[in-house]
Amino acid sequence: MIREIVWYGDEVLKQKSHTVEKIDADIKELINDMFETMYQNNGVGLAAVQVNVLKKVIIVGIPQEDESMFEMALINPEIIYHSDEECEGEEGCLSIPDIVDDVFRSTSIKVKYLDIDNNEQILEANDFLARVIQHEIDHTNGILFLDRLESHQKRMHKKDLKFIKSESLKRQNTKSVNEKY
Ligand code: NI
Questions:
Q1: What CATH number corresponds to the domain at position 113?
Q2: Does residue 161 form part of some domain?
Q3: 127: Cβ–Cβ under 8 A, 6 or more apart, which residues?
Q4: Domain for residue 3, yes or no?
Q5: Assessment of whether the complete model's pTM goes beyond 0.85
Q6: Which candidate in 119, 135, 138, 151 could, as Cys together with 143 as Cys, close a disulfide (CB 3.0–4.6 Å)?
């Protein structure tokens, strides 16, 4: 099932996600829905908070050169190592439509997580994959890529952000009306 993506301006995006205690059918359904939602919106990563679920679940889906898809779901992901070496690269976010900018991220990381079968895994990731994972783990800590921009970068997006925020508030109001009736 495709879920609605929460947009910038919704306070939920600033909240910290909770640790998943048990990988049950609900979590598996959440992950399936997240993949459907991400691909529908042409994303390469998604965090559960972006579909309004405050749980530490992130997914990545990166198209490879041979046209296959590199897919992963990471539960309770935690960065246990990040390189001091950083590189700048362009990022966007499905919760902040149509805004992209350059962000500095560690070039390589090690991340500890649970896979869908409840096995603890450690993944070493570099370059683009490392970037996507850092971006998504930020979401689980209530951080957006905008928060990592220099103030002069952020200023350039002020007008667009104001627009997204007002659209986001409209959606939230419609939601609470629908819930009432
Ligand atoms: Ni994002």
A1: 3.90.45.10
A2: yes
A3: 87, 107, 108
A4: no
A5: yes
A6: 138
pLDDT the model gives residue 179: 66
Digit-coded pLDDT (tens) for 3-49: 999 999 999 999 999 999 999 999 999 999 999 999 999 999 999 99
179 inside domain: no
- Catalytic entry in 136, 150, 167, 179: 136
Is residue 180 one of the residues assigned to a domain? Answer: no
Residue 130 structure tokens: 């490392």
One-letter amino acid at 135 equals H
Say how many Å lie between the CA of residue 99 and the centre of ligand 1: 11
Domain count for the chain:
1
Tell me whether residue 21 is one of the annotated catalytic residues.
Answer: no
- From start to end of the chain, where are the E strands? 45-47, 57-63, 69-82, 86-91, 101-106, 108-114, 120-126
102-145: per-residue pLDDT in tens?
999 999 999 999 999 999 999 999 999 999 999 999 999 999 99
Range of the domain at 117: 11-173
Could you tell me the distance, in angstroms and rounded to a whole number, from the CA of residue 174 to the centre of ligand 1? 23
Q: How many angstroms is it from 70 CA to the middle of ligand 1?
A: 18
Is a pLDDT exceeding 70 seen at residue 180? no
Cα of 21 from ligand 1 centre, angstroms: 24
Residue type, 3: R
